[in-house]
Amino acid sequence: MKLICDFPSPKSLPDKYVLPPEERPCNHELRDDLSVALPVIDLQGALGDGRRQVIGDIMKAGKEFGFFQAVNHGVGEDVIQGFREAAAEFFRMPAEAKLKHYSNEHNKHCRVFSGSVTSHTDTNDIRYWRDCLKLRCYPVDKLMHHWPSQPETFRERLAKYAVAVQELAQRLLRLIAEGLGLDSQFFEGELTGGETMMNVNYYPRCPEPSLTLGIRPHSDRYILTVLSQGDVSGLQVKHKGRWIGVQPMRNAFVVNFGLQLEMVTNGVLTSVEHRVVTNSAKARMSVATLIRPNMGCRIGPAPVMVNGKTSYRPKYRDFTGTELIEAYEATAGNREALLEMFRIHHTK
Where in the numbering of this chain does the Fe2OG dioxygenase domain appear (predicted)? Predict the structure, then answer.
């Protein structure tokens, strides 16, 4: 039981992290200069006369990319960098201090794990090059006592960060609702009322980036993910059949739509596959905040998104948050496989 960040620096990749050739990133996909850029949306405009323009930009980004970068989002640089520093300090702590949080039990409120297993069924499971601190981060008062107490600043800084990002996510969802012609408060309540999850992902320097990945290709399962990716590249998004790199922007958030949102919007907005590549020069840390539904609530296409016309028939059946999680685990985050589990096949 050991985290990758506590390994002595290897000169070659241990066998259990070497992916089959067809699953490895191509050499040209490891460059930082992949050409297509994600839309960058200035959210400050949504506070005034530019609101309609911002909403239009979010809708366009959601339909074409499923992703965008948000700037002037209202979360203070001190809040973002303060928590990132505390999280980085957590991974620098001695191995024994981190490993007291180690667990492979998925339902724990806070756990550290390493090298997520691939979906291969053979006995020698292959692993991805990532350490992760996974915790429930909101509502803060209810969950704070589960968080690591070391380093000393961790809980205080996470509390500020979690509240600020939660407020940002709700602002974004109000803009999305307006863009879809829904009531601005449509996504408030049970659709976003579950305990918010956070993955603090740490990708140590990798001796052979062309042989492995940090995270497999997947779509996120819930309604919205807000990511602080720091200043080291690695996140890649599938766009028109190829992988494009998401260039880091200081204090920007990368926002992406999840499978839950795609089904609630009856396919109008898209949940796009993404992955993480590693590099040999620098460690990378990202902080992903995932807005979740209440597990027992009913989820399905919003009534305003469907009507009697053939082209607007509901594409997906209703389901619960628990069913969504079970389907996600069964399909290992594969977008098409999961959507098929909920798809309605209409007869003419």
Answer: 193-293
Tell me how far CA of residue 61 lies from CA of 3, 10, 164, 239, in angstroms: 37, 40, 23, 12
Nearest to 25 by CA among 188, 217, 203: 217
Contact 306, 266 (CB under 8 A): yes
Q: How confident is the model over 290-318, as pLDDT tens digits?
A: 999 999 999 999 988 887 554 578 999 99
* Residue 214 DSSP label: S
Q: Which of 330, 268, 270 is nearest to 302 (CA)?
A: 268
Cα(98)–Cα(212) distance, rounded to whole angstroms? 24
For residue range 42-68, what is the model confidence (pLDDT) as tens digits?
Answer: 999 888 889 999 999 999 999 999 999
- What is the pLDDT at residue 1? 67
Chain Cα centroid distance, residue 308? 34
The answer to pTM > 0.85 is yes
Q: What stretch of H or E contains 238?
A: strand 235-239
Backbone angles phi, psi at 248, to 5 degrees: -65, 140
The SS3 assignment for 171 reads helix
The residue with tokens 């981060």 is: 137
Residue 231: what residue type?
D
CB contact at 8 A, 50 and 221 = no
Q: How many CB atoms lie within 10 A of CB 247?
A: 16
According to the CATH classification, is domain 24-342 in 2.40.10.220? no
CA distance 234 to 285: 10
What does the domain layout of the chain look like in residue ranges? 24-342
Beta-carbon neighbour count of residue 35 at 10 Å? 7
- Give the length of the chain: 348
pLDDT of residue 120: 44
Q: Which two tokens stand for residue 200?
A: 């603090």
For every residue of 80-127, DSSP letters joined together read HHHHHHHHHHHHHS-HHHHHTTB---TT-SEEEEES-B-S--SSS--B
pLDDT at position 124 = 58
DSSP-derived secondary structure letter, 254: E
Torsion angle in degrees (nearest 10) through CA of 245, 249, 251, 255? -40
**Alpha carbon distance 61, 41 (integer Å):** 9
